[in-house]
Amino acid sequence: LEEEKMAVIVQKMVGRAHQDRFYPDFAGVAKSYNFYPLPPQTPSDGIVSVALGLGKWVVDGGNSVRFCSKYPTDLIQFYSAEETLNTTQRGFFALQLQASSDFGIETHDMMVKQFDLDVAEQDGTLHIVGSTYSPEDDVINDGLSRKGIRLVTFGPVLHHRLFPLSQIVELLTDMGTWGMGTPVEIEFAVNISPDGEKAKEFGMLQMRPLVLSREAEELNIEDLEPQKCICYSQQVLGNGVIRDIYDIVVVDVHKFDRAKSLDVANEVMHFNEQLLSENRPYLLVGVGRWGTLDPWLGIPIRWDQISGARAIVEGAFRDMDVAPSQGSHFFQNITSFRVGYFTVNSMNHQGFIDWDWLSAQEPVEELAFTRHLRFDNPMTVKINGHQNIGIISKPGK
């Protein structure tokens, strides 16, 4: 056998020096395929995650701005001031220029350090991507000209077109997909020189094939056996297979009272806390919009009250057809934790929930409007993100 060899590529880092720090104005990751599209987006429109400073913030899973390059101003994660405050980037990574030159295992951790946003404001980089929250009138304004809490929203870039980020990313992902014959993922970094001193710089750091789960592609509608399914939907967010769910928290469709939706939210929170303490992921099934601001249209719940759910089902009311939320009220959390989200609108024949089967199961605990079910065998959640369809099989099926 030939001796294995490895090539090492040394790449020039994109960024600018700010005193003893070096970092790009912003960086991110763009994917030409998105398993969590919200209308009018489609999966093939792709998704971009971008953050102030080094792209390590995005790669490590920190809060970032997510947008579709075809619809750059549709930022679901910022649908309210409260949600923006909860999901915005709070710091950034930069390379320390004065770090020790002794190289070793911990060199990277010594050289890359996290800084607060006030440092970026002093460096003159926050204004490129920043906005300001005014607590007095509960309003977020793009830019840093007003007093208030600094936020990273990329408003100047995406709304006011300070830099043609969406156009560049869309072009590169389209070219990459065509050239490689498969969806791609690119990493990039951007410099926008102050006062137009130099040309604006977009650095494409890496392009690679996007690894997609092949397992979900085995899901075939023709093989569907309704009697073996808890749920089937043609409006699903996510991709892949989940096989470790033994518990269900279900809102009883026959008992649900819109006037008591706040009580329902508290009951769900009770079960969520209980299952989190036991480290047991669960399937959450309910009616109306999860996380709605209007308690008459669904269940006004926060993400921290359902954070243990691995898959969520949003069903229709018995007597009222409400436009589904499709997870938009906590979209950032659903995408970050890769939660499967099923929307079922039986009135439009877009799937079903086997409410009769759920009602017939013996609960571990039952409250006024919700029930906790537990099984000896796991349920199987299958999501085909290419076709936006999904099924949840009954335990052992």
Characterise the protein shown here.
This protein has 397 residues and is an alpha+beta fold. It has 2 domains: 194 residues, no CATH class; 179 residues. 19% of the residues lie in helices and 32% in strands. Strands 13, 14, 15, 16, 19, 20, 21, 22, 23 and 24 form a 10-stranded mixed beta sheet that branches. Strands 5-4-3-11-12 form a 5-stranded antiparallel beta sheet. A 4-stranded antiparallel beta sheet has the order 1-2-6-7. The longest helix is centred in the last third of the chain and has 17 residues. The N and C termini lie far apart (47 Å). 42% of the residues are buried. The mean pLDDT is 88.
Topology of helices and strands:
Blueprint (H helix, E strand, L loop, with lengths): L15 E3 L2 E3 L2 E6 L15 E6 L3 H4 L5 E3 L13 H7 L3 E6 L10 H5 E5 H7 L2 H4 E5 L4 E4 L6 E4 L2 H4 L6 H16 L3 E8 L9 E9 L19 E5 L1 E3 L2 E12 L9 H17 L4 E6 L1 E2 L7 E2 L9 E7 L15 H6 L3 E4 L7 E3 L1 H6 L4 E2 L3 E15 L4 E5 L4
Parallel strand pairs: 15-16, 16-19, 17-18, 19-20
Antiparallel strand pairs: 1-2, 2-6, 3-4, 3-11, 4-5, 6-7, 8-9, 8-10, 11-12, 13-21, 13-24, 14-20, 15-23, 22-23, 23-24
Features:
single chain; 5-stranded antiparallel sheet; 10-stranded mixed sheet; 10 helices; 397 residues
